[in-house]
Design goal:
heterodimer, A: mainly alpha, B: alpha/beta, Alpha-Beta Plaits, 3 domains, six-stranded mixed β-sheet, four-stranded antiparallel β-sheet, 10 helices, about 30% strand
Chain lengths: ~270, ~325
C-alpha cells in the first residue's frame, strides 16, 4: 500500500481516501457487533417498551386520561422512543470501546494511520446506528399500542440524530476513563437512568411544583425528550429552538473533549 | 534511507521508572534487524513509542523519514506491528479481523478480502477463517497476528516475540515466511528471546539493557567477537574425574559429559588428539549455548561496564571485545 503518495496534493487525496475507508470500516464493524449480539443490543429495549406500554400506557394510563392535550399512550410514546435511543447509543459506545480497551484490540486502531477525531466519530456513529435500530424497534412496538402522529418529521430526525450522537460521545468519554466494568456501569445506573426518568418521559413538567419544575430545567434529557415530542405531537415543555441549540452545543463540546483526551492518551496510552 | 531512525529517545513513566535513557538507533531499509534485551530492558517501550502506543518523554523518531511528531499518520501507514500480547477481538473470526485491519489502513474492502485470503492461506489459517478466534491454538493466534500486520503490506514490519509459545515446526515455517517477506523488500525488526532465531534470521543487531543500547553491530561481526566458546562432549565410557588437559578449562558435568572452554586461537583438533591419547572416546559434540546467547549474556550481565563512550561509540566489555 502506498498511503503516502509523492506530491502533497496526491498525498492529501490519498490520506482522505484512507480516512474514508477507515471510518466506514469502524462503522461496519460496530454494525456487525450490534447485529451479532442482537439479543443483547436490540431486543431488550423492545421488550421493555412493551411492558411500559402495557402497564403505564394501558393500565395506569387509562386513569391518567389526557396529558398535554393527548391520550397518555400517545404522550409517552416519543419519550419511550427517546429513552431507548439515549440508553442504547450511550451503552453501545461505552461497552464497545471499553471492551476494545479491555481486550487490547483498541490497539488495532491506535497503531493505524486514522486520526483520533475519526476514531471518535466512528464509534459515535456506531452509537447512532444502534440508537436508530432500537428506536425503530420501539417505534414499531408503539404502533401496536397507539397511533403515532408526526407533526414535524424533519425535527424528529434531527432530534434523534443529535441525541444519539451526544450520548454516544458521552459513552465514549465514560469508556476512556473507565478502568473496570463497575465504572462502565456506574454512569448508566446512577446518572443516566435518573436523568431519563426525571426528563419528562412519562409526564409533563407542568404537573410538577414550581421548585421541581425549575430543577428539571438543568436536566439535559428534558430538552431532548421535549424536542423529540415536539416533532411528533407539536407540544413541548421547553423552548424548542433552545433545545436544539443545547443538543448541538453538547455534541460539539463532547466531541472536542473526546478528541482532546484521545490526543493526550487519557486512559489508552502510557 | 533508514527505515527507522531514533535520536535521544527517552521515556520516564509516571512511577518514575526510566525505561529508555536517550536511545540512538538506525535501522536501514531492507534490513532484518534483531533488537534483543532481557525482560524490562526497554524493547517494548521503544516499539510502543514508534507505533504511538506509548507517549515519549523526549527525543525524536522517524519512520522512512516521517517524523512521528509532525507526520504521525504517514509514519504509521508504513508500519505493521505484531505485538507481544494477543490483541485481536477474540469474538471475531480471522477473516473479519484481517479484513477490518486492512480497512483501518484505507484498503478497500474488495482488495482486503483478496489479501485476507492470500495471507491466511500463506500462514495456514484459511481453514479457520470463519472460526471464532478465541478457539484458535496459541500458534494459530500468533500467525493470525502476523497475517493481520501484513494486510496493508507495510514497509516496516515490527515483530515483538512473534514465535513465543510456538512449536519448533511452525516456528521454522514462520522463519521461512519472514525471510521471504524480507527478501521482497520489507524491513523487519525482530525482538525475541530465542537467540537462535535472531542469529538465524537477522543481519544486524542491537542489544538493549537498562534502557540503553549496549551493542549495535552486524550479526556476523558481533559473533566473530566471541572470544571463548564452551563445547559439550558426550563420552562413550564413564569417567570418574575430569581428564587433565593442560591449558584448557575442563569440567565433568556427569560421568558421560565433559565441558571444555575453547578460545578462538585454539584448535578443536588439539583437544581431540589429547582426549584420544588419554583413551577418551567422544561420541558427539555441541556448543553449550548458541554463540549469540553467549555474547548476549556477557553483554547484559556486564551491562554496567558497557556504557556509551564519550565519542558516541559503544564500548564493549573486555570479556567480549578482542
Amino acid at each position: 500500500m502506498s498511503a503516502v503518495a509523492e506530491s502533497p496534493l496526491a498525498a492529501r487525496t490519498d490520506m482522505n481516501a484512507v480516512r474514508w475507508v477507515g471510518f466506514r470500516t469502524i462503522v461496519i464493524r460496530e454494525y456487525g457487533r450490534i447485529i451479532r449480539i442482537w439479543g443483547q443490543t436490540i431486543v431488550p429495549s423492545a421488550v421493555t417498551a412493551v411492558l411500559y406500554f402495557a402497564i403505564f400506557g394501558s393500565l395506569i394510563g387509562r386513569r391518567v386520561g389526557v396529558m398535554g392535550g393527548f391520550d397518555y399512550k400517545q404522550f409517552i410514546a416519543p419519550g419511550l422512543i427517546m429513552m431507548s435511543v439515549i440508553t442504547n447509543s450511550y451503552g453501545n459506545v461505552v461497552a464497545s470501546f471499553f471492551g476494545a480497551k479491555f481486550g487490547k484490540h483498541i490497539e488495532e486502531l491506535l497503531v493505524s494511520p486514522l486520526p483520533n477525531w475519526l476514531i471518535v466519530a466512528g464509534y459515535a456513529v456506531g452509537g447512532v446506528v444502534r440508537g436508530l435500530l432500537v428506536g425503530a424497534a420501539v417505534t414499531a412496538v408503539s404502533l401496536v399500542f397507539t397511533h403515532l402522529h408526526v407533526e414535524h418529521p424533519l425535527l424528529v430526525i434531527v432530534a434523534l440524530l443529535l441525541t444519539s450522537v451526544t450520548f454516544g460521545l458521552a459513552g465514549f468519554l465514560n469508556a476512556l476513563f473507565a478502568k473496570n466494568f463497575d465504572q462502565v456501569n456506574f454512569i448508566p445506573a446512577f446518572v443516566l437512568t435518573p436523568l431519563t426518568y426525571f426528563g419528562g418521559v412519562f409526564y409533563s413538567i407542568e404537573l410538577l411544583p414550581q421548585w421541581a419544575r425549575q430543577l428539571s430545567f438543568v436536566n439535559p434529557v428534558l430538552y431532548m425528550v421535549n424536542a423529540f415530542r415536539y416533532g411528533f405531537l407539536g407540544v413541548s415543555d421547553v423552548h424548542v429552538g433552545g433545545a436544539f441549540a443545547l443538543m448541538a452545543l453538547a455534541a460539539v463540546v463532547l466531541f472536542s473533549a473526546c478528541v482532546f483526551l484521545m490526543g493526550r492518551g487519557a486512559g489508552i496510552r502510557e | 534511507m533508514n527505515a527507522l531512525s531514533v535520536r535521544g529517545l527517552t521515556k520516564t513513566y509516571r512511577n518514575g521508572v526510566q525505561a529508555l535513557k536517550g536511545i540512538d538507533l538506525d535501522v536501514e531499509q531492507g534490513d532484518f534487524f534483531a533488537l534483543l534485551g532481557p525482560n524490562g530492558a526497554g524493547k517494548t517501550t521503544l516499539i510502543g513509542i514508534i507505533t504511538s502506543l506509548v507517549n515519549k518523554s523526549a527525543g525524536t523518531a522517524r519512520v522512512f523519514d516521517h517524523d512521528i511528531d509532525r507526520e504521525l499518520e504517514a509514519a504509521k501507514a508504513c508500519i505493521g506491528i505484531v505485538p507481544q500480547e494477543i490483541n485481536f477481538n477474540m469474538f471475531e473470526t480471522p477473516f473479519t479481523i484481517t479484513v477490518n485491519q486492512a480497512g483501518f489502513y484505507g484498503i478497500p474492502r474488495a482488495v482486503a478480502r483478496e489479501r485476507a485470503e492470500k495471507y491466511l492461506k500463506q500462514l495456514q489459517l484459511w481453514d479457520k477463517r470463519n472460526s471464532i478466534s478465541r478457539g484458535l491454538s496459541g500458534g494459530m493466534k500468533r500467525r493470525l497476528m502476523i497475517a493481520r500486520a501484513l494486510m496493508h503490506e507495510p514497509r516496516l514490519l515490527i515483530l515483538d516475540e512473534p514465535t513465543a509459545g510456538v512449536d519448533i515446526e511452525i516456528r521454522r515455517s514462520m522463519w521461512d515466511f519472514l525471510r521471504e517477506i524480507n527478501q521482497r523488500g520489507t524491513t523487519i525488526i525482530l525482538t525475541t528471546h530465542y537467540l537462535e532465531e535472531a542469529e538465524t534470521l537477522c543481519r544486524n543487531i542491537a542489544i538493549i539493557s537498562g534502557g540503553q543500547i549496549v551493542e549495535r553491530d552486524r550479526m556476523s561481526s558481533l559473533l566473530r567477537r566471541l572470544h571463548v566458546e564452551t563445547f559439550v562432549f558426550n563420552l562413550r565410557d564413564a569417567l570418574a574425574e575430569a581428564p587433565l588437559l593442560e591449558g584448557y578449562v575442563v569440567r565433568l558435568v556427569d560421568d558421560h559429559t565433559l565441558e571444555v572452554e575453547v578460545s578462538k586461537e585454539e584448535s578443536l583438533n588439539e583437544i581431540f588428539a589429547r582426549l584420544s591419547a588419554l583413551g577418551v572416546v567422544v561420541m558427539s559434540m555441541r556448543n553449550k549455548v548458541n554463540r549469540l546467547e553467549e555474547i548476549f549474556m556477557r553483554l547484559v550481565e556486564g551491562g554496567a561496564a558497557a556504557r556509551p563512550a564519550a565519542d558516541g561509540a559503544t564500548r564493549v566489555p573486555a570479556a567480549v571485545a578482542r
